[in-house]
Amino acid sequence: MPPPEVLLLGPGPSPTSPLVRAAQAWPLLGHLDPAFLPLLENVQQRLRELFGTANAFTLPLAGTGTSGMEAVVGNLIEPGDRVVVGVHGIFGQRFAEAARRRGADVVEVRTEFGAVPDPAAIVRAIQAGPVRLCGVVHAETSTGVLLDLRPIAAAARAAGALFAVDAVTSLGGLVWQADDLGVDAAFSGTQKCLSAPPGLAPLTLSAAALRRVAERRSPPPFAVDAGLLMGYFGADRAYHHTAPVSLVYALSAALDEVAAEGMDGRERRHRAVAAQLRRGLDALDLAPLVAAAHATPMLTSVRYPDGVDDRVFRAHLRNVHRIEIGGGLGSLAGRVFRLGLMGHGARPENVLRVLAAIGDALAAQGRAVDIAAALAAARAG
Amino acid sequence: MPPPEVLLLGPGPSPTSPLVRAAQAWPLLGHLDPAFLPLLENVQQRLRELFGTANAFTLPLAGTGTSGMEAVVGNLIEPGDRVVVGVHGIFGQRFAEAARRRGADVVEVRTEFGAVPDPAAIVRAIQAGPVRLCGVVHAETSTGVLLDLRPIAAAARAAGALFAVDAVTSLGGLVWQADDLGVDAAFSGTQKCLSAPPGLAPLTLSAAALRRVAERRSPPPFAVDAGLLMGYFGADRAYHHTAPVSLVYALSAALDEVAAEGMDGRERRHRAVAAQLRRGLDALDLAPLVAAAHATPMLTSVRYPDGVDDRVFRAHLRNVHRIEIGGGLGSLAGRVFRLGLMGHGARPENVLRVLAAIGDALAAQGRAVDIAAALAAARAG
């Protein structure tokens, strides 16, 4: 029996468009079929455009965003490498842990979750010793903090280090310029601002990153070996694994929608609905965790007022209003909720719907709220 | 634009049923949604039934069959472990290579690709020294050889070694009894006899395997860490990654179809169509690579007669008849073609259709064939 329809306004997956949903049901082709390969090549080319790169190695890896992170550390890190990681949320913490498990000597540059990290601190850590790779999270989904990549990229380049970026939540929501910035490795997920189903990790590696792979003392893990992956995703189209064909169909349809809108317009749309949301939250006396100037437009963490119960609040949205939102992770569990307005979900009508539902959930916990004022504030943009 | 309809009778992906295709287009739910979790639990329970196991750790891993293999070696192997691998095709070779890349001291028990391996040789290798793990491929997709697991499982158990099996092509086509056999780790793919789209790897680990993970000197890679995976797939349902929700929908629908048929009936069906195919091939003077007694019913490798060009032959089937079949891999490239009659594709009408197309492709290369005789032979079962 088909599942209920729930509006997905949490940290992902985001809502998929009717065309994207339908594409998954297209007749399955073989992963080496002459009609499938041009479709795959088109996906790879569109991903290059989205990442802002000419990297030949740009592909949709089978697996989750975490698999994309694993592919980056699995290919680019060897035991003993000094690696600097910016940790200001769960996903930075995960990046550091994944690198440690590859034997890296990890220097964590930590900032309290929810606070805005100082790029200069990461720059200083890069400059403090020889460094093989610097890894950071662009849009930290666990807090909603957006990191300024430029000074870190410049420092990594000056130090001869590879610069690797978790672009899971930012790709498809913000304009990306990987080559211009000097990014050597970036990975994303399809279920955030691209609004395709989860299960693929867009991944790009620069020529410098591939040189690093070629110079390894021992080969990378078989499943993520950059050379073997390019056997299939490059001109040879040699068998390495069976690509998730129906997910590639869906991603292809989603990327067509992104291209039709254009990334400038798409970033504007994400920023506009985020601003609407913030005006409405303010009218409900709710405070975002992160100031607008440093926040990710696609994900907004909101502090709970004293006495509001996280589980009851989110269950009210899910069960009464059929809206999914996210809870806090790690040290923020129970203290914030997270609203994702991503991709196909980043629309004004969704802002109004979730503001009304939030107001109703607060009222159900005995708080006085003026939902009409919140909706009017959100509309007045 | 939707792709053309091609009948998938190669080594996978196999054809998906209309219900399975449609399930992917169901409205997306969050991976922690209260309506999604019972569906996931049902998938896990049905996979336990298919593997023939009570293992709590039984789950659909995000990624390809190769990711499943990587999860097995990533969790169960540490540097220096002596590992015995049966290598009689590309996938055994891959298993050995994946283990070596985890630092294992791999003993390969090699058999010429296409020949039937002697389980006693693998047993002797197990007994020749201390052994941490023995890995074999049940149904070798690159050749169509079926391995007798029982003596190897017994020897592994007697030696105190873990027994790990590549069940990619056999699960859902042959009755599996992992607990009865003494299998500690098995992984599969969804795009073979389960007839779900590619992108998930069913995976099961025994209590002994999990003890091995707990006793590791260093933790496994983050993305495949068995303990972290069970945080999500166990009772806690804690976030570790975003499950590929729409693929889980499709797998759920596919497993419902498997359960409705029953595994006994499903194995009978695979065996019956394989026998039909062999009768028809014989009438066309085509010789299978592997004798029926040692062959996988779901995949049949067929020797090319002298002078038949592999590329021209397969292109004729694909472009004229809209049928995908597979070529040979490794040392068998150009020497055999591979016919998969898997899951939803394992039907008598597909046997007749592909026999007619094969006859036509031979005729197009100037050979005299009697297609009517081949179809009559196939029908006469």
What does this structure look like?
Two copies of one chain form a homodimer. Chain A is an alpha/beta fold. Chain A folds into two domains: 18-260, Type I PLP-dependent aspartate aminotransferase-like (Major domain) (Aspartate Aminotransferase, domain 2); 262-379, Aspartate Aminotransferase, domain 1 (Alpha-Beta Complex), CATH 3.90.1150.10. Chain A is 41% helix and 15% strand. In chain A, the strands form four sheets. A seven-stranded mixed beta sheet of chain A has the order 2-10-9-8-5-3-4, sandwiched between helices. Chain A has a three-stranded antiparallel beta sheet with strand order 11-14-13, with helices on one face. In chain A, a hairpin with an 8-residue loop joins strand 13 and strand 14 (336-340). The radius of gyration of chain A is 21 Å and the shape is globular. Chain A starts with 6 loop residues before the first strand and ends with a helix. The mean pLDDT of chain A is 97. The interface between A and B is large, with 68 and 67 residues.
